[in-house]
Target: Nitroreductase family protein
Amino acid sequence: MDRLSDALLQYHDRSKHRVNRYAPGPHELDWIAQPNPFREFHGAPRVNLLLAADTFHTRYNEVRCGALPSAYGIDLRNLSILFELSLGLSAWKSYRATRWALRCNPSSGNLHPTEGYLVCPHLPGLPAGIYHYLSRDHLLERRAAVDDSRWITAFGGNGVLVGISSIHWREAWKYGTRAWRYCQHDCGHAIAAVSYVAAALGWQTRLLEAPADDEVARLLGLDRSDDFGTAERESPDVLLWVGHPDGRPDIERMLTASDAAAWYGCANQLSANQVRWPDIDSIRLATIKSRTTELSAACAERRPLPAAPALDLSFAQVARQRRSAVDFDGTTSITSAAFFAMLECLMTRSDTPPWNVLVSPAAVHPALLVHRVDGLEAGLYVLVRNPEALSSLQTSMRPEWLWEKTGPDHLPLYFLLPFDLRASAKLISCHQNIAADSCFALGMLTRFVSAMQEPWRYRHLLWECGMLGHTLYLEAEAAGVRATGIGCFFDDEMHALLGLNDHAWQSLYHFTVGGAVDDQRLSSEPPYERQG
Ligand SMILES: Cc1cc2nc3c(=O)[nH]c(=O)nc-3n(C[C@H](O)[C@H](O)[C@H](O)COP(=O)(O)O)c2cc1C
Model:
């Protein structure tokens, strides 16, 4: 094993929660050092985005079926919708003297390590440049003005780039070593959130596989030490192409064109003091990505459409009302038809969000602990999202599992064990009731050895998990139930349940879906005071 794979394995095992010992974290929370959830660049010119999502009528069911509207123009108004419904605020909540914002994208502990950027040519209402999105005020901060003829041609088609970065300290402040994993999950949720809104606008989204992390950092201005000073740095995550599917952005050309750009703004300090987590430094370094070749999308098989959800909601409503359940009633059930439709939405389709983003084949397979799905026996199921994984999963798990194909013919769902798994689900999820009182809970099995061979792929696996989770969040809302991401789980308890004895397969994220019980003590206010 080489040095990087070794560092990755060490981090992965050290960041596991165990029944008798949680992963290293702060012993108590230093409230004085709590990081500001909003990054801003003081001195950067600001462009107010419009609050136009109310005028936007695409239906959620059309988006999930890939029946996308004709492409909207790429202009300030429609980019405003893109940001508002993906990374924008969805409400302000308060309880007694405490007030906090919720966003369309979820985040572990609501700490929001994810930052969003826009890289665009000159567009109606928006000059060419590199912008940072400030969700608190729904505006763009112009970090760089680019005036170079090569900039326009570098986009290679009608579209823009959305960049994502993470401030690991925001999560590490509360969660210590395991926080880095949560940052990657959150990034996956953000990728999915962007791709869903883009699709609702008739645009396609594609994750650019080739760029190296240092190229992403350079393009987004994350490597500009003087602009950050002592402020917390951002780690480059990903560039997404958003627009016409044929767009071929040339990042090297963009970088050359941006060399002479005028840069504006200095990053705000988020925290009074920062604690170093050596495990996070080590995994960050082990998973740095260098330049690779751009992959072209494999021709995905055509799949049947998922059945319509129980509620026919507009896309904007689903995106805004998405919430994490904090408690489930322990009685609600869903129909097997609704369950199968949700699972169908987890299957990859090349033109349907969020799976249009990825060119590589599905690498994450949900192991489902079904508690209350009408017409379906309670027990353990696995959705094998990529047929090539089937035999490896079968040989890696307990030999006594049934592996009985169940559900609609086209859905690669297998029934492994009839059993009431509520107590196991709760135990595995760090004793959280939400995993037992729901209709079903799940762990996301990933082919971990692929990450061991190329450590940067660990990040991609965690992103794919976040993308699956995001689909479940939206699907749950449309089905009239609610979901919650579960980052806190005892990794090896899940592996023991399944009979996984080595690192070939690891569960990297958990989820739960059921009938939510709202916390009546909280008050809610609209996300933005200004109109339009
Ligand atoms: C990666 C991730 C891990 C999470 N883990 C848990 C968890 O273990 N338990 C829980 O109750 N909520 C969990 N959540 C839900 C967050 O607490 C929730 O997203 C956050 O408070 C914001 O609320 P919202 O989703 O309603 O916008 C998780 C969310 C994410 C994205």
